[in-house]
Amino acid sequence: MAAAETDRDAPSALCSEFLNFSAKDTAAKWLQVSNLPKEVYQHLACYVPKIYCLGPNLNPQNEDLLAQLLLQGPLEWYLCGEEPSVGLSKLEQNNQPSQLCGHVFKVGEPTYSCRECAADPTCVLCMQCFLGSVHKEHRYRMTTSGGGGFCDCGDTEAWKKGPYCQKHEPNISDSSQKDPLANLSAEMIARTYNVFSIILKYAVDMLTWDKEDELPEGLEPPARGDMYYCMLFNDEVHTYEQVIYTLQKAVNCTQKEAVSFATTVDRDGRKSVRFGDFQFCEQAKSVIVVNTLQSTSTKPLAWRNTSRQTKPLRVQVMHSSVVAHQCFALKALNWLGQTIRYSDALRRILCQVGLQRGPEGENSSLVDKLMLCDSKMWKGARNVYHQLFMSSLLMDPKYKKLFAIQFARNYERLQSDYVKDDHDREFSVTDLSVQMFTVPSLARMLITDENLMTTIIRTFVDHLRHRDLQGRFQFERYTAQQAFKFRRVQSLIGDLKYVLISRPTEWTDQLREKYLEGFDAFLELLKCMQGMDPVVRQVGQHIEMEPEWEAAFTLQMKLTHIISMMQEWCASDERVLIEAYKKSLSALTHCHSGFTDGEQPITLSMCGHSVDTIRYCVSQEKVSIHLPVSRLLAGLHALLSKIEVAYRFPEQLPLSELSPPMLIEHPLRCLVLCAQVHAGMWRRNGFSLVNQIYYYHNVKCRVEMFDKDLIMLQAGASMMDPNHFLMIMLSRFELYHIFSSADCRKRYSRENANKDVVQQNNTLIEEMLHLIIMIVGERYTAGVGQVEITDEIRREIVHQLCIRPMAHSELVKALPENENKETGMERVIDSVALFKKPGVTGRGLYKLRPECAKMFNLYFHHYSRADQSKAEEAQRKIKRQNGEDSVLPPPVLPRFCPLFASLVNILQCDVLLGILGAVLQWAMEPSGGHWSESMLQRVLHLIGMGLVEEQQHLISSAEDYNDTNFNFTLKISRPGEAPANTASILALLETLQNAPHLEVHKDMIRWILKTVAYIKTTRECTASSPPSDSSGHSQEETVRDKEKAERKRKAEMARLRREKIMAQMSEMQRHFINENKELFQQSLEDLDPSTSSTLEHSPSSCDSALVCVGPRRWRAGGSDRRQVVTCILCQEEQEIRSDGKAMVLAAFVQRSTVMSKNRKRPPHNPDKYDPLFMHPDLSFGTHTGSCGHIMHSHCWQRYFEAVQAKEQRRQQRLRVHTSYDVENGEFLCPLCECLSNTVIPLLPLTKTCCSSEQPDLSQWLNITSHQMKALISAHRKSKASSAEAADETDGVNDCPPPDGFRLDHTPKNPYSSTIKEMLTTFGTATYKVGLKVHPNEQDPRVPIMCWGSCAYTIQSIERLLVDEEKPLFGSLPCRQDDCLSSLTRFGSACWTVSSHTTVQNHFIRLLAALVPDPRVENSPCILDVDMFHLLVSLVLSHPAVLCLDSSGLSADAAQLHFLHLITVAHVVQILLTSLPEEVRMEQETGGAEREEEESVCLLYNTLRSLLGRGLREVSSGWHLWLCVKAGILPYLRAAALFFHYLNGAPAPPELHALGAGEWEALCGYLCLPSNLLQLYFNNLDIMEPLLHGWCSHPALQALQSSVTLIRFPRESNHLIDLPGDYSALINQASSFTCPKSGGDKSRVPTLCLVCGAMLCSQSYCCQTELEGEDVGACTAHTFTCGAGVGIFLRVRESQVLFLAGKTKGCFYAPPYLDDYGETDQGLRRGNPLHLCHERYRKIQKLWRQHSITEEIGHAQEANQTLVGIDWQHL
Ligand SMILES: [Zn+2]
Ligand SMILES: [Zn+2]
Ligand SMILES: [Zn+2]
Ligand SMILES: [Zn+2]
Ligand SMILES: [Zn+2]
Ligand SMILES: [Zn+2]
Ligand SMILES: [Zn+2]
């Protein structure tokens, strides 16, 4: 940086001083002095400024070295009294370490918690302890640590079972807790005490020092320099960008330096950005302050995200000596931390020193000082001392307690400081609370001795200041600043939770007293919440502004577990419970003391009953959804009932004070509010109310909201006359007027005034009926009904699964979690559900056990309306499938507890019967509006409940002959009372049974009638005489007849329904075809022989032997060649002809390293790279793929232009990206939306005639070499003549061409203009993408790239077929088949649009690699050439030479000769490279292939004689032949594919299957002898010279000895091996440090699945520049490792990342599953994860198929938000 270079002390002088220094002598001196502190301070004052902070450039290692020598050395000498290394190791040996592990977690390290044995979820183990513990066999949870915190192994309070791992198992022999100081000498103790107290005081003084230009007493330096630092502090307001920008301006540094400053400030909390004199620093400071004050509202990104007003960055100009001492103070704390590790005794002394009270009394210990200054210190300092606290105070059981007391005493102040501060909690000392409060014994002690519970609650309440007139919280007026504070203060709730998390097993009087005091404080808090955020119904106008509601709900949500825990504490002690109950009741009375005030009392009367109440309308007055005091009381009431205190000590309960109407009033209002919102009466109140209602029922809140309101209504109703209760309810629902009038049964003759009102009232009636059903029917809370907690959970699960089968995580989400994040599901799930494992996609599912379906209750209180209808449908369907009646009667319920027992009487009370009768009467009229289906359904359900109840009563009374006065059947058989002479309910039902408009309810009515009949019979039997068989029988009979008729009718209905469904199905099918055109298209293509691969299906017209290459090859007849395809865009048919309109195939060309055998090869320089010869390591290739969809070239062009135009408009308008890059020629296939970037033209098979006589190999070589000679000289001549100044002496001999070889001939291009255009288009695209260059159709490398892509694509598909264990032919999907065939044919035609001379030149060079030619320079050695690429290039470039020939040479002959030559070369290549070191002789006698073995031996020995010692002696021909066969097979298979597509010859059936015979079939198909060596030995005259030529290549000798030889066969690449257990990966990643920022932990460690590299992703530190842009580590890596395509695993997120280029990416499900068959993206659930091999293989297949980019495209199309992510920064 540009800061001033300083005039430092001359180093030499300093050095000599340092060299003469003796730590031992200094320590010896210290032992003598009387005032040791003064002496040490003097030493520090002298040396510290000389060592530290002499400017920004000093090497930090030097500083540490000097500090060790000059500062720590003497301290250690003094401490030990001898050579420190000796003394310390002695201490270590004598140490008896405690059993605590205490391993402090690094960021990202895996932690484990046992869900069965941990005292609470904060109890965790480190990986090592976990693996050695019993818990690894239990249900455990795995998470990644956020840093801080330590392993609880060895803490007996943290674990219910197995507190020790194997390593920390205590020794039984010395189990007695000894004082660690016992085996230390008194002198040693004294010395340690001296050193520790001086150094700790020094460090505390310096770290809490707040003067910029002065030092504490005794530390003033002997000679004072005047250099300063400009120190920048971090805050959580400014963004990285702001800071970087400001720094560049203020201290004039480069961006890189600014980034580095900013990173350090963010990490350490401060960083000096300038060093120099005061003025110099002051100037920088003012620039920073001014700039950061001005900079407004750029959105904060990486720094922290808070939305508060900007204040300037904090900057201080500090004297260098102050900074130096602060630096050493941190070192000194680290030193203390390290020193106490040697011995528990030293640790205890340090604790003692730290906690010793100073002369100032209260809070004067050094520990107190540090704590109380916490919020004033910078992040780095806080981290260091927190660390020291953790390794000292928190590790020593005695001092942990003392520290906890100090912490609790200072609690309020620490929290206030924290709330004012803006650092995250992990950087605050308050974060240590978890380490103490979760220890049950400490928590209990702090509650009783320090009144901690009350302190926490009071502190919390004090921080929430805004109250309304009644003293309730008011969050509405919060400013952003206050809202921010509110968020911070919520951490106190966390502390309260820690304190309460373990319930006491024994209560002392003191604990009772303090707990109840805390309970009082808690009630005060709840009282501030009771009735907060009230709402008033908006009529007329819509509300103007949505009122604030989230803060109140946040508070409620955070307190939910606390409220539950409070109740559980109470439940564990009767006395506490009774006291708490009294307190809650009086609090509630206090809240609503005046609830009748100002309300007009009224009297309600109905059905001969009357009750007094008040006039109150929810729809007109204030109502609040927040009633925590009532709900707490409701919870306690249920507990009283559960533990039966109410019956045993009724005298202790304030039962007489209970006023049931008061108890139910507010919960009832709340439920009415919900009903009215449902009925649409509160529409004008906006979404805030809708949201509140939603959360009120939501699983996160309902336990302490909705559920408790229901219990309160049950409690109230159980103490009231049911008729009174129902009348009050009717009144609150504002429905009283409807049912109270004498002629209510004729409702709508009076009241059809307003249709909306009728509709509203209908909904209200439905809701009210539902509420009655719940009040009578919800008995699954322990204390309300006679159930256990497990029954409750079981029932919840059953009802979830009644909706549909669900995954484990879905169930977890649907169930309330307790404070330990447990749902209790595991205990019961297997009793109600069956698990079904997932396949390669999807997840495992739980399905309801069929026998549990009988528990189904349609009106389950936790169902939403949507859930309810889904469940109803699903359950009816299942019943129908099982051939049962689809009626869903109410289930049998558990019995109420005695305190709630009277609730059943609601069912048979007069008011309810009146209501039921009225609705049934209304239902007589079919015309709409008067009643609703749901209303009737609920009424029938209620009647059903009455009957079920009666049945249960009958059963139990049969057992213990108690007189049961529950006689529902009697009641419903009686005619109505109030309006005289109305029909009884039973009579109404009998009438309704036949009403045609009630078809859907018939089965339920029938069920009711049947049950009534049954009950009556039972009653008669049990009451008097035995049942008269005959009557019962005849009744049965008629029922049976009826059922028969019914079944017939149903069958008919079913038939009609089936027909309807069939019609729907065919409609859906049409729809499906539209949506899945690709699939459909393909199947059509399969059927239609004219569209693709026609040739395979038709019989051969020529030879019967299937040969694909050479003069004898199979030839297509004229009709076979005809190929007609359909354009997907215009739907017109078109024949493929060379002179016709061009047809093209959408294609995607990409660079690939999938087959690379050398990922270390640096990328080529695109401008200079000569791609003519592919290296056998296949490090970079160009792959072409296609979705197989065909278009006219002009249709495609029009389409692409339209896409371009649309994209331009879109970019101007929205600046959003698409999943494809139009500027780079990308588009989506118009049919299947597959990503494409070019098109391949479709070409017909070239016509060839079989000319009879063809030269043999040696003749042909002879002719060809003549041709080459002539060509070369002709080329040179034209070059020379064009160069004008022709140099005659350069050896250009005129060489006459052989007969019929016309050098001046220009062949006619057979292709139409559109085809030519498309040939150029595809060629240029391949060139552009393959080399990453700008398109240039003239570039001589265009044809080479095309041939290369053809060869590479065929090779990769050959590999894929091997990997997938599929036969070579017949298993490729259509799209690949079409792609390969058009790619190959394109390859053979692409020379026509290039310069012929260029292609001829390529051919000359290619041939020279095979047939050495002195005139061609730089021919590669045969070990440097991939033979298949050579074959393809030779075959495809040859036409450019052949076209000059008119002597009748055929292309077929040439192809065969190329194949033979290259095959021999490949055999030689294999023999030279691929013999394994160890040759085993096990199977000496091969036998069957004797001839091959002998000839391969012969060739090998020839090679040995040519190359000498390079080759080992091998005696086994059998082995050699095996190697050759294995090595050459991939090449032969690829060649077979190539010639198959080039020449259209169908493949023999042996190659359509896997298994034996492949070799012979391949050789036959390729016209090769199955003994390949014959190719050599039958042409020895030409082969021998060639062999000599190859072996004499200068590069060969050198190459052969190198280690990086490519061996054949090249094995398929696979993705790296992953560990079976995911936590192994997390552990691996946690020790990974960012390679660029010196040992820092990486925040987003990301693993490359291709090569196994670990990267520091998504972080400034590891950004690099790539092609002029800053990119993250992953993107940069993809360019070297995957040619732009990458597959990564983000370890902390458990997420697979696909990247392609800089702009494309998507996340993909990881191959790790938990035991429930689910992935855990984001690692939120923490279930143990294990590798799923099938899924990993699927990812690997995507990669090998080159489908990653395509997958990204589809993902981005499906999810547009993926497009907006800055993938290049990952
Ligand atoms: Zn551990
Ligand atoms: Zn352990
Ligand atoms: Zn366990
Ligand atoms: Zn078309
Ligand atoms: Zn397509
Ligand atoms: Zn890699
Ligand atoms: Zn990094």
Automatic annotation (TrEMBL):
Keywords: Acetylation, Chromosome, Coiled coil, Isopeptide bond, Metal-binding, Nucleus, Phosphoprotein, Transferase, Ubl conjugation, Ubl conjugation pathway, Zinc, Zinc-finger. Pathway: Protein modification; protein ubiquitination. Its main location: nucleus. It holds the Pfam family WHD_UBR1. It is an enzyme of class 2 (transferase). InterPro entries: ClpS_core (IPR003769), E3_ELL-like (IPR042065), E3_ligase_UBR-like_C (IPR044046), Ribosomal_bL12_C/ClpS-like (IPR014719), UBR-box_UBR2 (IPR047508), UBR1-like (IPR039164), UBR1-like_WH (IPR055194), WH_DNA-bd_sf (IPR036390). One of its GO terms (cellular component) is nucleus. GO terms for biological process: protein ubiquitination; ubiquitin-dependent protein catabolic process via the N-end rule pathway. It is found in: Chromosome; Nucleus. It comes from the Eukaryota. One of its GO terms (molecular function) is zinc ion binding. It catalyses: S-ubiquitinyl-[E2 ubiquitin-conjugating enzyme]-L-cysteine + [acceptor protein]-L-lysine = [E2 ubiquitin-conjugating enzyme]-L-cysteine + N(6)-ubiquitinyl-[acceptor protein]-L-lysine. Its EC number is 2.3.2.27. PANTHER family: E3 UBIQUITIN-PROTEIN LIGASE UBR2, UBIQUITIN LIGASE E3 ALPHA-RELATED. Ubiquitin ligase protein which is a component of the N-end rule pathway. Recognizes and binds to proteins bearing specific N-terminal residues that are destabilizing according to the N-end rule, leading to their ubiquitination and subsequent degradation. This is E3 ubiquitin-protein ligase. The gene is ubr2.
